[in-house]
Amino acid sequence: MSALWIAHVHVTDADAYGKYAKGAGVAIAAHGGKFLARGGDYHTLEGAERERHVVAQFPSKQAAIDCYHSDEYQAALAHAKGAAERDLVIVELTE
Q1: Distance (Å, whole) CA 66 – CA 15
Q2: Domains and their CATH numbers in the chain
Q3: 43 by DSSP, 3-state: which?
Q4: What pLDDT shows up at residue 39?
Q5: Tens of pLDDT along 37-86?
Q6: Helix or strand or coil: residue 1?
């Protein structure tokens, strides 16, 4: 069953976060992920205001988890530490 990787982000250092985004995109693609939304227009109805929203679809929940724990993603994530406030969740689709 496929899964969605959903991130809500407030960027505090655009240069460092740009390095993260570049490396994360490569890691996500390497694990079968594809972006459905990456930034773009949004409207917050409830919860914390975060100006960047990313949704990627993976072939399975495990593929998304494996991506997160991969060496490639963790190397990219090092750039996001201290450069953003993030919430990240993986949700299995009910197909």
Answers
A1: 26
A2: 3-42+49-92 (3.30.70.100)
A3: coil
A4: 87
A5: 998 899 999 998 999 999 999 999 999 999 999 999 999 999 999 999 99
A6: coil
Q: For residues 2 and 57, give the distance between their C-alpha atoms in angstroms, rounded to a whole number.
A: 7
Rounded (10°) angle between helices 61-69 and 71-80: 70
Single-letter amino acid, residue 64? A
Band (21; pLDDT cuts 50, 70, 90): very high
Kindly compute the dihedral angle of the four CA atoms of residues 24, 62, 90, 20, in this order, to the nearest 10 degrees: -10
Six-digit token pair at 88? 């990240």
C-alpha separations of 83 from 1, 43, 58 in Å: 33, 23, 25
